[in-house]
Amino acid sequence: MPKDSDSELPTGGAAEAAVRDWLAAFDAALAAGDADAAAALFAEDSHWRDVLAFDWDLTTTSGRDAVRARVSERLAAIAPTNFCLNEDRYPPRPVMRAGVDCLEAFVRFDTSGGACEGVVRLVPAEGGGFACWVLMTALREIAGHGELLGFARPGGDAFSREWGGDNWLDIRERARAYADHDPTALVVGGGQAGLAAAARLTHLGIDTLIVDGEDRIGDNWRKRYHSLVLHNEVQVNHMPYMPFPPTWPVYIPKDLLANWFEHYVEALELNFWTGTRLAGGAYDEAARAWEVTLEKTDGTRRVMRPRHVVLATGVSAIPIMPDLPGLSVFKGTVMHSGAYTEGHAWKGKRALVFGTGNSAHDVAHDLWASGVDVTMVQRASTHIVSLAEAQKPYAIYNEGPSVDDCDLLAMASPFPVLREGYRIMTAASKLADKPLLDALEARGFRLNDGVEDCGFQMSYLQRGGGYYFNVGASDLIAEGRIKVLDYADIATFTADGIRLNDGAALGADLVICATGFKSLQDTARVLFGDGVADRIGPVWGFGDDGELRNMWRPTPQPGLWFIAGSLAQCRIYSKVLALQIKAREAGLTGR
Questions:
Q1: 384 domain residue, yes or no
Q2: Do 347 and 277 share a structural domain?
Q3: Is the separation of the CB atoms in 100 and 418 below 8 Å?
């Protein structure tokens, strides 16, 4: 867990002086075009994550030799200057990150591409002074193409109104009708990913339309199961430009979030078509644009030709229904967890919940609370962590810096550092949760420590699931109130339940498959065909470069972008995505 450093690292003015000295040396090396001198300022085991500052991509470079090569490759093209302490952000301080005591500071600098910022983490160097352990550099604003915010916002001239002509509402209604033009960017999906992407694009001057199949903005949360509440704390979950009110509860209820989405769209003047689905499309290589068909719930269709399509349908768009032996003869009700709302109608009945991730536990808990006899069917081992321990990866947002500062700190964790930090946190949480974990194993519940022993975070980033934050269901399992059955013990379904391998019968009236969703690559396959899906390859999960595959960066398919994830991920990386699209529209980079 990130915490104040217990080492003898300097604090206050001494910490600031140490950071300034390092930055001055680094800036001088870059100004001299001396890649060797720049690399010499890094520790041997160092990492540099660049987010659009030195190149139009997300790139992690590890090791002093690799840093030297990267600086040498990009120095002339990008001309970085004025590396210095960013005095507008939180002051330098000693902290511990991923088990390493370091000095952490915010930096700023300029390149030929625009204004940049970042984070540096310094460790004591052999022979005295400090060396860089982690450097994160990020483009903040494209030169000449800043966000339309503050003094750059439109409508500053009080006399620019049309006397006797169109007012603001007229202009807004015409803009979102798209009667005589097409958007530059089409965002498919109106959840947090779509709204964050559209907000960033719109306020970079990119004409953007969001389409969503639901009838009301926010229904993608509003229509989910009745008891749903977010599992991480409110301070992590703000949206771009418009933070949640300080009066909100620590854990946000789904309906409160859904209603906020409606306010968000209106307040940020986003163009949004409800009841509209993307029926399909194809990319026109010659025109460098898509031709897509939008279908309204009334059956009407509209063909549009945006240059960019941003798929923001989330990692839970297409439900997976498993092939369960003999299920076709079962006479009860079968549904996917995505269709589950509440359990009161099943009071006094028997339910089987297939799956042991977050949704499965929440559904099982809700059914039990509604008076249902519940058995969870475990198909694979699961990572369990208490709700309190599950907040530890987000502890950075409670340390004092602003949300914007914390977002930069969150970006400043290259994959090797991220993985080691998660391993440390997982080992600590496992120890803290030991009594509960022991009780679960005594009930036959199979546990794991997450992907690569990195807990729920890496399981989410690599698999999209496979874990549960305990908000009570694990206690019910440990107490025997919710039963657990291993999937391997099931022989087949029968008309009124299942038969086990030992011949015993287990009755059921309801079967819920909390068995996950297909990948975003599958979503692309449904919308654009095998050619596009095969060209882009897997979406989500870390690639060999230590970045999430095809997320918020160019895909092998021109004009196709993906954004997904938690509210925090969408808030942070929507800007990264939008800057890349803006750069293409401004002719500053490739396709």
A1: yes
A2: no
A3: no
**Per-residue pLDDT, 359:** 92
Residues 185 and 279: their CA atoms lie apart, in Å, by 16
Interval 246-273 mean pLDDT: 97
Maximum alpha-carbon separation in the chain: 83
Residues found in the chain: 591
Mean residue pLDDT across the chain: 94
For residue 260, the domain's CATH number is 3.50.50.60
Task: Measure the CA–CA gap between 532 and 415, rounded to whole angstroms.
Answer: 28
Helix (H) or strand (E) holding 486: strand 483-486
- pLDDT at residue 433 greater than cutoff 70: yes
Q: Which is it for the CA torsion 71, 75, 77, 79, positive or negative?
A: positive
Q: Which residues contact 155 (CB under 8 A, 6 or more apart)?
A: none
Alpha carbon distance 263, 449 (integer Å): 40
Question: Distance (Å, rounded) from C-alpha 570 to C-alpha 565?
Answer: 6
Whether the model clears a pTM of 0.70, i.e. scores above it, the answer is: yes
What Rg, from alpha-carbon coordinates, does the chain have? 26
Residue range 136-165, pLDDT digits in tens:
999 999 999 999 888 777 765 554 567 778
Phi, psi of 432 (to 5 degrees): -65, -35
Residue-number span of the structural domain to which 290 is assigned: 170-317+518-585
Of 26, 19, 25, whose CA–CA distance to 86 is shortest?
Answer: 19
**Sequential DSSP letters for 416-469:** HHHHHHHHHHHHHHHHHTHHHHHHHHHTT--B--BGGG-HHHHHHHHHS--EEE
